[in-house]
Structures are given as C-alpha cells and as structure tokens.
Amino acid sequence: MQKTLLFVMIFLAINIPTIQQGIGQSTLDRRVDSLLSLMTLEEKIGQMNQYNGFWDVTGPSPSAGDASQKYNNLRKGLVGSMLNVTGVEEVRKVQKIAVEETRLGIPLIIGFDMIHGMKTMSPIPLAEAASWDMEAIRQSSQIGAREAAAMGVNWTFAPMVDISRDARWGRVMEGAGEDTYLASQIARARVIGYQGDDLSDPLTLAACVKHFAGYGFSEGGRDYNTVDISRTTLHQVILPPFKAAIDAGARTVMNSFNDLDGIPATGNAYLQRDLLKGKWNFDGFVVSDWGSIVEMVNHRVTEDGKAAAKLAVLAGSDMDMESYLYVKHLKELVESGEVEESLIDDAARRILKVKFELGLFEDPYKYCDEEREKTIVGHPDHQKGVLEMAKKSIVLLKNENKLLPLAKTGLKIAVIGALAADKDSPLGSWRGLAEPNSAVSVLEGLQAHSQNQYTFAKGAELVTETPVFLKEVKINTTDRSGFLQAIQAAKDADVVIAVMGEHGFQSGEARSRSQLGLPGLQQELLEQVYLANKKIILVNMSGRPLDLSWADEHLPGVIQVWHLGSQSGNAIAQVIFGDYNPSGKLPMSFPRNVGQMPLYYNQKSTGRPTNPGDDIVFWSHYSDVSNEALYPFGFGLSYTQFDYSGLSVETLANQQVRVKVNLKNSGLRDGEEVAQLYLNDHFSSLTRPMKELKGFQKINLKSGESKTIEFLLGPEELGFYNGEGNLLVEPGEFTIMVGGSSNATLSVNFVLR
Ligand code: BGC
Fold first, then answer.
1. pLDDT for 24 beyond 80
2. How far is the CA of 224 from the centre of ligand 1 (A)?
3. Which of 216, 384, 428, 745 has the highest local Cβ count within 10 Å?
C-alpha cells in the first residue's frame, strides 16, 4: 500500500508540472525539483555514484567482494549510473533492478567509451580530424552513436577535445590534434553527431566532452603526468574546444587526471565552478574521470578519501566514477556541516535533468530493444559510412614523379611488413566492442581492388605476443628470420608497398612513447628492403605522428593511413589505385626527430626569431635539426594540383573582415582541397603566435574548375583571450595567409580600426 502511494507521488511529480512553480522555470526543471523533493539525502548522493559494470549475464547474481557491494548499493537506490554495461540484455538487467527494486525507481544512465565506433569501427579520431570534413565527422559520430544506443547505452564519454602538441602522448589518437580552431569545429560536429537534435531519440546519445582540462599538456608527453601551463595558454589554446562543444549542446563534461597549477582538475573549483558552471552557464553535469577523486590522495592534496570527496564536491564534480567515495562519505560530510546539502541537490538535479532529457523517465527501457539492436548494429550502411570516412582520413605525404596512383593490372607488387596483413591493428585503441581481427587488411584491400600480382612477406613480426588492452605491447626486437624472404620479394617486384607503423594498442591511454621512429625492427627491415628495390611506397599506419625522416629522404612515396577502422584496407587500396583522390591534411605536425617535441605550427616568434646568418648561434633554434616540421600541420598532397590567386581583404563594420581568394584545380583529375586561412596579428598586448588557423573550407573541384572562396572573420577570430578568459580585440595591422597548408605563402595585410 505504502509502495503504491509512493509510486503515485512519483508519477505525479514527474508528469504533472507542479503548481508552485517559480516564474520562468521550465517544465522540465519543475519535474526535476518535484522528484528531488521526494528523495532522501542518501538517494540524492546515490545519483552521484557511478559504478563500472559487474553484472555477469550468464552467471548468478554477484555474490562476493566488490561486486556484491555494488550490487547491494544498486538495489538500495545508491547508484545513479553504470559504465561498461553494454548490450540490450545486460543493460535491461541492471536497469530492471534500478527501476523495480529501488524505492523511487529512478533509472540509470548507462555510459560507455564509444570513441570511434561500437562494432563497426570508424577511423581513430585523429585520423578523422585529417579529413577536415565536418559533415563526414558528424556522420561518423552518428554511426557510432546509433550502434551504441541500439546496444542499450545512452551516454558516450566523447568527444575528447584535448589539444596536444606532443606526439609522445599516446592519447593524441583520441583527439583532433594540435590546433584549437580545427578542434573546436570538430568538437561541435561530434556533439551534433552523437546527440542529434533530440536527446530522447533512442538512437542518440548524450555527449561528454573531456578531459576538463589541460590533460593534453602532460609534461614530457607522459600520460597522467603533471601539467604546468599558464592561464593564457589555458584560455587561448585549451578551453575553446570545450566551449564549442558546450555551445553545441554537450550535456556532460568529464574532468581529468592531471593537476593544473597545483590543483588536480577534479578538485579544481576555478575550472568547474567559476568557469564551466559560472561564466559559461553550463547546466549539465560533470563526471569525474575513472578514480580521479580518490587519486587526489596520490596527488597528495588530500589526506584521505573523505577529504578527497569533499574537495571534489566543493569544486563541482557531480558524479564519482569508480572512486566509491561519494557514496561512502558525502552523507557524513553533509551531516557534519562540512558540505552544504544545496551542493548535493545541485549535483543530483543536474544528473536527473539529463536523465529526463534522455527520455528515461518516460521509458527506462527506451534503449533496450532487441529487434532494434539486431537491425542497427553492424548495418551495411554503417560499413559504407566508415569506408567513406576512412578514405577522407588518409594523407598523401610524398609522391615523387607521380608514382601514385598505381596501375591496377600488370604490376608485380611486393607487400612487406607485418601490419600489411594485420586485421586487428586498424581497429585502433579505443575499439568499442569490435570483433578482434575484423578489419579489412591492406593486403586484402589491394587484392580486392586490382588484378596485380602480389607477393606478401612480413619480414619481421611487429609483436611477440597478441597485444591486449590492459598490458604493454611486446615488440619484436630480435627475430629477423623473415628478412631474407622480404628482400627477395622486393628484388622480384616492380614496386614495393611497405606497410609499417604502430600496432593499434601502441597508442591510446597509457601508451606514451619516448621514441617516435618505426617501432621494433621495421626501420632496419625497410632499409634492407631499400637496398634490394628503391621503388617503395611507405604506408604508415600509426596512432600518432611518427618521425618519417628517413623515408622522406629516400623513398618516392609516403602515405599516412593511421588506424582506419573496419574498412581500412579497402580505403587504402582505393587511394593507392586512384579510385579516390586523397584529400586529407595533417591535424598534427610530423617531426624530424623526437627532440622537437612539443612541436606545433602556431609557435610564437620569441625575442630571437630569425637566423642572423654567418653561423651566428644566438637565435632560437636547435644546432642539429631545423625548427620546422618534416610535414607541417595542414599539409597533404592530392593527385591533382590546386592553385591559389587573387587574395583580397575588405574591412567591414563591427570588427569584421571579408576575405576572398580564387582556387583553381589546374591538374588533370577532379579533387578536393582544404583551403586554409591563417592570421597574424602584428602587435598585441600579449605575445601571440606567428600564425593561427582562423578558417578553412573543403572544396570539391573538377579538373580545370575554379571557384572564389569567401571567409568572414569577426571578433572571435581577430581577437584573443587573456588569462582571465576575456576576449580582447586590439586594433592594428594584421596579415592573412591563405593556402593548402600552414606554410601558406599567399598573403595580404589589413588594418583593424
Ligand atoms: C579515461 C576516460 C574514460 C574512462 C572510462 C579513463 O581511464 O581517461 O577517458 O572515459 O576511463 O572508461
């Protein structure tokens, strides 16, 4: 009887807007508040608690240790969310407990790292960034979202928008590269791709922009390391993509493992309260990173778990992912007066609101439909979609004497390298629930797209054991027993395709590297093969920029293919044979050696920017390597030729300028070009980069066709942020450079009054 009464009250609370509404308060807010008014302190704290999955669908209820504790808390209504529970059957089971066994029946929000696909894998995000194609990225994100949502998930921990200038950091594969402007556009495209325009649509997910903030600046590129940057770098370089994601509607934010200016991000009130929830008015919720609340004890800013929970909640972390501390300590902290209950209300309110928006109160099993799961996951259209995305992600780096594209018949081709036949590496590091070894290999792709004669020789294994997600990848550094066979194959061939680079698990979280060359014996193998046949196309498959200096100096062809997902081999073959004209441009600078790290195109001029000549050493440079990247940001070749001319600029009212340029496809093939606009502010009150990307457009032109492109720049593009996060637009002279890479030379000046 009592239970029935409660259900009636909850029904009324969430369905009928209450009469005592505040003016201007939305219906949704009123529903949330009505529900909140029925909740005990413990239940509100429960909403702030997130557990990793424990439910074993095939086995009995969890009975021991950690799992049993989690299970009991779930039944008591002390869990608001779970992550890594996937598949309709599994999700339904945990949801059923939350809905049917807890006092209030509040549904769980189910999170998962759907980063670049669920079963059907898209290219890794860094690869997709190389497409500079926002519509393609939106569609690719949508494909992943559809599959994840069909599998019961309603929240993805993406997009990751951490700017990074250091290829040693393994997580560069997960972001959009080194540039703030490009990353901001991509952040927006991804959020729209995941969330669509209706969060309650059962085929969309809530987005979670991460990691707030500064994580990509881990010292030395070592994951989880400390971050020490200025407030101006924070505001100018790191925060804009977060702001872009939030402006696009991202409903949640994840904080980060690192400290920033001495305070862990998870306990950082400046970031979470002052900026995010204050200045930016963000009304979604913040989830901690995995265990990042308890890790504040390791950071040694709090003595114990209780103090860590207190610091995190005061700083604005709303949900505790796998630290188990909120559910353990918050009640006591509120009762002792150390934490105000209003903070708990605020956090619970934010979380409940997103659950309402997802439609979970309307139907907690909304994302649990077996039929939908069967039809959506792995849908043939998704394979087509990820193939298109993969083609657009490939970057042609060198093509001497137009060696590429290759003919489809009549060639004897030696395909060399363990990665050539690898069906697993292309799936990348954050591979969702992809079947191991399910990608189309390069070898399979080449064979399917041509009638050439192929000889495959590994030359050397890349790894000595099958890599697994949790463990260090074991790289072969001694077994050269396949070298001779590879050398022989090269001798007999018209052309060699060497597929080298990194295993899919060599980049990603916790995969920092101190070397950026080809891992293991690959460089040695490549040089030996070169002695037998110089006509080599290097297909570099990696999750980060590698040092390709030797290849660039010696080989006629170099293609960057990243980890391209399920359709990898087909996409690569289509580029090699010219079925697709490559259009990708690098989202990160490729170095000449690892010592150049951190490397980025938008460097400041410093007090000593120029070479005084006569071998005088006193300027900002290295004595043993150029300051320039081997392949700069924004660079990528095509099988056709693009010419820029007639650059002009017109100053308009309201601090706006209009830029026009003529782009011509003067080559013999149709193709796509990414026209890029860079800006230089001659003098400003803070030191500024020598050039910064402020606009780009991807244009499709038929052979011989030309087009006038227009860019409109306003205060946001012409100005810059100071250390307080205020936009300054300072009058004076500017230079605009337009072209096909960050080395664009066509320029024009204007004066902003
Ligand atoms: C990562 C996050 C991820 C979380 C949950 C953490 O280790 O840093 O990016 O979302 O795990 O899997």
1. no
2. 12
3. 428
With contact defined as beta carbons under 8 Å apart, do 297 and 305 qualify? yes
* Among 378, 360, 374, 357, CA closest to 144: 378
Ligand 1 lined by 113 (C-beta under 6 Å): yes
Say if residue 58's pLDDT is above 80: no
Which residues, at least 6 apart from 237, have a Cβ–Cβ distance to it below 8 Å?
Answer: 163, 180
For the chain, give percent helix, strand, coil, nearest 5. 35, 20, 45
Give CA–CA dist 248/206, Å, rounded.
12
DSSP 117: B
Percent of the chain with pLDDT over 90: 94
| Structure token pair of residue 27 | 């219906």
For ligand 1, whether the C-beta of 290 sits within 6 Å is: yes
**Contact predicate 619/651, CB 8 Å:** no
Query: How far apart (Å, rounded) are the C-alpha atoms in residues 152 and 360?
Result: 12
Using CA of residue 179, residue 182, residue 186, residue 187, what is the dihedral sign?
positive
The pLDDT assigned to 19 comes to 41
The confidence score (pLDDT) of residue 4 equals 61
Report whether the peptide linkage leading into residue 563 is cis, meaning its omega lies within 30 degrees of zero: no
Rounded Cα gap, residues 241 and 239, in angstroms? 6
CA atoms within 13 A on the CB side of 447: 12
The rounded mean pLDDT for the chain is 96
* pLDDT tens per residue across span 226-235: 999 999 999 9
Q: Where are the alpha helices (DSSP H) in 494-628?
A: 522-532, 549-554, 568-576
The pair phi, psi for residue 540, each rounded to 5°, is -95, 115
User: Beta partners for 255?
Assistant: 212
| Angle at alpha carbon of residue 394, lines to 388 and 397, rounded to 5° | 155
Give the closest residue to 579 by CA, choosing from 394, 383, 426. Answer: 394
**Contact call for residues 173 and 186 (beta carbons, < 8 A):** no
Tell me the C-alpha distance between 115 and 635, whole Å. 25
- Which pTM does this prediction carry? 0.97
Report H helices in 323-407.
326-335, 341-357, 370-376, 380-393
228 an active-site residue?
no
Residue-wise DSSP of 444-507: HHHHHH---EEEEE--S-SBSS---TTS---B-SS--TTHHHHHHHHHT-SEEEEEEE--GGGS
How many residues are recorded in the chain? 753
Which pLDDT does position 66 carry in this prediction? 81
Residues 6+ apart with CB under 8 A from 747: 647, 735, 736, 737, 738
Residue 25 confidence (pLDDT) above 70:
no
Atom 7 (ligand 1): residue with closest C-alpha?
290
Pair of tokens at residue 150: 């069909």
Residue 267: name the closest of 311, 310, 204 by CA: 311
Position 558, amino acid: V
CA 53 to ligand 1 center in whole angstroms: 14
157 lines ligand 1 (CB under 6 A): yes
Q: What is the pLDDT of residue 22?
A: 44
| CA distances from residue 728 to 2, 241, 309, 655, 723 in whole angstroms, order as listed | 61, 18, 37, 12, 11
The Å distance, Cα 553 to ligand 1 centre, comes to: 39
Q: Which of 162, 166, 179, 289 is catalytic?
A: 289
Task: Tell me the torsion sign for CA atoms 334, 336, 339, 342.
Answer: positive
Q: What pLDDT digit, counting tens, does each position of 60-109 carry? A: 566 667 888 899 999 999 999 999 999 999 999 999 999 999 999 999 99
Supply the DSSP string of 685-743, one letter for each residue.
SS--BS-EEEEEEEEEE-TT-EEEEEEEE-HHHH-EE-TTS-EE---EEEEEEEESSTT
DSSP state of 590: B
The reported pLDDT for the residue numbered 54 is 80
Report the phi/psi class of residue 395: left, alpha or beta, with left for phi > 0 and alpha for psi in -120 to 50. Answer: beta
